[in-house]
Amino acid sequence: MADDRLTTAELRDAWALLSGAERIEGFRQVDPVDADDFFLGLSSREQAQMLLSMQSGERRLWLRLLAPDDTADVVQEVPREERNGLLELLDDTSRGEVSALLAYAEDAAGGLMSPRFARLRPEMTVDEAVRYLRRQARERLETIYYAYVLDHEQRLCGVVSFRDLFAAQPNTLLADVMHTSVVSVEDSLDQESVARIMAEHDLNAVPVVDEEGRMKGIVTIDDVVDVVQQAATEDIQKLGGMEALETPYMQTGLGALIKKRAGWLSALFIGEMLTASAMGSYEGEIARAVVLALFVPLIISSGGNSGSQATTLIIRAMALGEITLRDWWRIAQRELAAGLVLGLILAALGFLRIVIWQAIFHTYGAHYLPVAFTVAISLIGVVTWGTVSGSMLPFLIRKLGFDPASASAPFVATLVDVCGLMIYFNVGRVILRGILL
Amino acid sequence: MADDRLTTAELRDAWALLSGAERIEGFRQVDPVDADDFFLGLSSREQAQMLLSMQSGERRLWLRLLAPDDTADVVQEVPREERNGLLELLDDTSRGEVSALLAYAEDAAGGLMSPRFARLRPEMTVDEAVRYLRRQARERLETIYYAYVLDHEQRLCGVVSFRDLFAAQPNTLLADVMHTSVVSVEDSLDQESVARIMAEHDLNAVPVVDEEGRMKGIVTIDDVVDVVQQAATEDIQKLGGMEALETPYMQTGLGALIKKRAGWLSALFIGEMLTASAMGSYEGEIARAVVLALFVPLIISSGGNSGSQATTLIIRAMALGEITLRDWWRIAQRELAAGLVLGLILAALGFLRIVIWQAIFHTYGAHYLPVAFTVAISLIGVVTWGTVSGSMLPFLIRKLGFDPASASAPFVATLVDVCGLMIYFNVGRVILRGILL
């Protein structure tokens, strides 16, 4: 019998390929000793799917294994009509805690915290505190390693780590050993700011307080890893020119996958239609000097690439809190300088390309030199414009109250492509007048 | 005097704008009670810069504040010729530990771990273990909350949390309460895999062992937050078409900033030169039907955008371990279907655009309908090709042993743009033969 058991590693490997029913089947074959760790390691969405596929007794068993913050996440993953059914499986205390958590926005500190933290009173001695925490060790507290000292109105007076308690004299009062300059966050603060504050202060746990300063729960560093990972994934997908997926790629259905991509792809397409209009207004030039048309893709892709470098850098630095809106002018100066240098480099490459091809293949006709100058000078203009507008647009979009990660890419692309064409053909008009045009 | 003190919040706000000397100056004005937390919260690079600007006595004081893993990070940030000078400021034990850590690659588990973990023996009782850890509470251990049970050859037999010890009978042997199925990582494993394993198993600390299974240190979850954040930043910057920066944007000098961008921008430019050759081979078609040239930017940007969506999705899913190389065929099928649907949507939009503009502005001449069909059919081909090649190239690049995040964007761009032009002009040749061509 024991030989037939699945190991959790085997089940985890096959997981993505299994249907809901197969997952339950596989899960029941796992050694019961490891099954709880496996279940706790699943995402909230997967836990929700598993629970919905279980019989009611089994469902209660596994639901009650979860801490209240995790239970709240699971409840948010199930269809609205199933939620009460799940909540009814909880004991009264847990149900109260979970309901309180569900009132918070999922992406706020309140939605991330656990209400099960260790509470102490300032008038306790170190020895009393240790004995109290020792009794709590078997309870379902999020952690006993950080304990919070509250007054009678639940206001946070200080924090002690278990280690502090161990290192202190047993009969000292907590009021004398606790740290009173405690970093805390408000329950409405967004998750990513919570993560940033914890990283900045090197905290393993941060207390969450309400508007009146009453302590409501704690956020521990292990919850923050998920927040950081998820926030980065969303930003990466938005920068890739699409809406962020709600589920991992392989678990996202084809319909949802297309829906998340079609919206921005169409918006980008409609924006880029302006390039057809821009090209249309230079139709005469193209007819007279077809050679100009040959470099259009090269020119606009260079603008697009330099713009995408700048946008990416600025948006990530904003997300990490490295730069704020008031830094815009310093950044504009830096990016202007960077854009000019990068433009010069590409201009030199482009110039060489035309001269060398002309020498070998005689591709570009008698007037290859003015054409080469047109391309080179346009590249300086287009790359500089791409770099500056790519770095400044995220500031503008954020100032207007939108999310720079999702809105910047399409605007930069359209702006840089249309303006790039205008720069190129106008440089051409000046340099090639009387020669080709 | 006390009124003149800087708060750490004030200093942190001004930090990015201060020179090295000003930072030291500001740091000395901070209340000594908060100065250590402030110093510990700085990045390794900032700590290194501060230390190098200090007098030697002050330097020793602050260097010795750091845990050995953090010291090793700082030593790696200073110029090679300064390293021995710093190491000599450490006490003998710490110097030995730091030197051992420096032998590991910075981005491996061994370079991330702390060697100061709590060691217990299987034959100790719970009570002995608690008393032993209590004595260690004042020592500079990374954590006393997880303790590792080692045999006489330093091989890992099990792990106990402090909480387990508190919940157990005092006279039980550790061998009877410890968890023996311990997840551990090898010291040569890369950091990002360590992060993934800890997230998968919901671990707050993971033991690091060498090839012979001897325990060398622990990685704690707070170190992993930085790893996750940094890995995401590197991937975002690489996806933006540049090398990853080594320092935050505002602390990167203009020269370094340009250098990180110029390489890939030039590589992309040289790749995109192929578009000029591709366009050149359709010069005759463009001369006869200038209207074809007008839609070139629209066609290639649509291919580029759909390719960039697909590449971004796949690379992020790879980084998160959601998909592996063997999933390529399932993904190819999904992306082919997605590409066809997305292509149809853009084709419909493009067709409508031409027909409506023609009705209003009479822009595209008598043969606007075949032109509209050329654009629409090309869009289906270009978007499908962009989606499929954008999703498959990361697999190919990874299979060849390169980093898909940094190499995919330029290859996808060039491949999609050049092939997009070929699709477009060849569709035009077929549809417009005898009409415009």
Describe it for me?
2 copies of one chain form a homodimer. With 437 residues, chain A is mostly helical. Chain A is built from 21 helices and 6 strands. In chain A, strand 4 (185-186), helix 13 and strand 5 (205-209) form a beta-alpha-beta unit. The radius of gyration of chain A is 30 Å and the shape is elongated. The N and C termini of chain A lie far apart (86 Å). At the A-B interface, helix 3, helix 11, helix 13, helix 14 and helix 15 of A face helix 3, helix 11, helix 13, helix 14 and helix 15 of B.
Average of the residue pLDDT scores of chain A: 90
Helical amount among residues of chain A, as a percent range? 55-70%
User: What structural class do you assign from the helix and strand content of chain A?
Assistant: mainly alpha
Shape of chain A: elongated
Strand content of chain A: 5-15%
Low-confidence runs of chain A (pLDDT<50, min 5 residues)?
none
Number of helical stretches of at least 4 residues of chain A: 21
Which pair has the most extensive contact? A-B, 107 and 106 residues
Topology-level CATH name of the largest domain in chain A: Tetracycline Repressor, domain 2
Number of domains of chain A: 3
CATH superfamily of the largest domain in chain A: SLC41 divalent cation transporters, integral membrane domain
Strand order, main sheet of chain A: write it out: 1-2-3
Radius of gyration of chain A in whole Å, from Cα? 30 Å
Number of strands of chain A: 6
